[in-house]
Amino acid sequence: MEQLNKFLNERAKGTLISWQHQAEAARRYGITVHQTERAILEMGLLPARYQRNSGTVPPEGQLVLHRSRVTVIGCGGLGGYVVEQLARAGVGTIVAVDPDVFEEHNLNRQLLSSIDALGASKAAAAAQRVAAINPAVTVVPEQVAFCPDNARELIAASSVAVDALDNVQGRLELADACNSLEVPLVHGAIAGWYGQVATQLPGEATLRLIYSSWTSGAGVERELGNPSFTPAAVASLQAAEVCKLLLGSGRPLTGRKLVIDLLHMDMDQFTVPT
């Protein structure tokens, strides 16, 4: 460790360590890039990729993000964007959960989809994408459908879970599991021009209250579909909320539901009844 620290200190420009030297340190000392990044941050230095974060997230906050683990349930329209944004922000470990493979109708809106990826696992694509943009982030791909039986395995070790599902029943099961495991949940849903975001902290019944009138069947997204821009907008809000929770910054979106109307460019919030 002493030799690694000496190597990094000698190559720092101010407080910044370039990607070239980060990768070289990993090779030279036989450790992962993830481990090298932790060493850099623990020294009070900053990987150069995060220099534009520093006005918002100080170096000690960047270390908090690096040490964090987030589970994203669903790697499609919402989840693909959430995974990418968390990886670019520097969240150290992301569990990417999705049982599906890419189909042609995903190409209009899902960031991780491509013609070459048709038929490929969405969870595996999340890992491949992050490896290409930020190899210091560890992605754990899980090509399984979330259910109450595997909730502990997928969520219990995480600081936050993200709801990027496309069905109400799954969201409610996820919300209940997060409560049972005492893991905060950042919910997102999209349909056509519209979307919503909310945060459920342990002990709250936010999702059950939001969907209190639902009895069965598909949500409105099956009728309205989803264009390319709605998942990107809502996922950005979810990613911001996740980072706030991890950093303990700002005011979390608890006890409230944020509703986004991109057709009329309106954004409103509603109190979730208790």
TrEMBL record:
UniProt domain THIF-type NAD/FAD binding fold: residue ranges: 50-272
Transmembrane segments: none
InterPro entries per UniProt: ThiF/MoeB/HesA, ThiF_NAD_FAD-bd
CDD domains per the UniProt record, alphabetical: ThiF_MoeB_HesA_family
Pfam family, one: ThiF
Taxonomic superkingdom: Bacteria
Protein name: HesA/MoeB/ThiF family protein
Organism: Geomonas oryzisoli
